[in-house]
Design brief:
The complex is a heterodimer. In chain A, about 75% of the residues lie in helices and about 0% in strands. Chain A is mainly alpha-helical. Chain A has 2 domains: about 80 residues, NADH-ubiquinone/plastoquinone oxidoreductase chain 6, subunit NuoJ (Four Helix Bundle (Hemerythrin (Met), subunit A)), CATH 1.20.120; about 55 residues, no CATH class. Chain B is mostly helical. Chain B has one domain: Orthogonal Bundle (Helix Hairpins). Chain B contains 3 helices and no strands. Chain B is elongated. Chain B starts with 5 loop residues before the first helix and ends in a 13-residue tail after the last helix. The chains are: A mainly alpha, B mainly alpha. At the A-B interface, helix 1, helix 2, helix 3, helix 4 and helix 5 of A face helix 1, helix 2 and helix 3 of B.
Chain lengths: ~170, ~100
Amino acid sequence: MAEAFVFYGLAALILGFAVLVISTRNTVHSVLYLVVNFLLVAMLYVMLGAEFLAAIQVLVYAGGIVVLYLFVVMLVNLKRPPETHQDPRRQTRLGLALAGAVLAELVAIIVYSSTGESVPAAAPAEAGMVEGNVEQIGMLLYTNYLIPFEVASVLLLVAMIGAIVLAKREL
Amino acid sequence: MLEITTTHYLVLSAALFMIGVIGVMVRRNIIIIFMSIELMLNAVNVNLVAFSQQWQHVVGQVFAVFVIAVAAAEAAVGLGIILAFYRNKETVNIDEMNVMRW
């Protein structure tokens, strides 16, 4: 009962702030709504028992990525609003038809999943697993997924160098 | 209705993803489009964590960590490109970003 209450409240807030992110005219406000959205998703992770991921979400998304966005919004000081330009080739009718098809598909999925039989019960946790969310992720990350982990670190290094090269005026 | 199952999380994730898609297609400001992409990546993460809880296995959360790492790299490079483009063209409107179209 309490869980349902919290879930529906969180879901409504997450979707509401997501709509605000894409509908607000002022870009700075949009970024701030995005922070709130990320923090609410972190709360959803706590509900799902993923505490480590909730902490990472707050640190990396709300703390790192959004600050990067704010910096760019402040640097790209807009003199005229970018939404005034109208594309004459915009295909409104085709877009509406596609959106209707996607909506019908989503409604069909929801109806089917609420009437169909539920998924089988959760598989029992592996024997010999360590306790605790962070320990489990650490064990998996440094054993089975060691190579993807190293590749991700190389990717981050490349992205860092790339961002510096792109943002520099001349090398 | 009062019991929260994995389906509830998946429907929330689908709705969040659709809001991201709508943001990418409707808005013309490239910074807003990047934020919509972040929303979509977040929806994917919710999906992964919901299934991680469903199967009582933490591998979904490991994948979500990788998604967050890739999102950080994407944001850094993408915003670098936006800055470089803005320096040349003085615009963030994607309708005017057509130098590589043909």
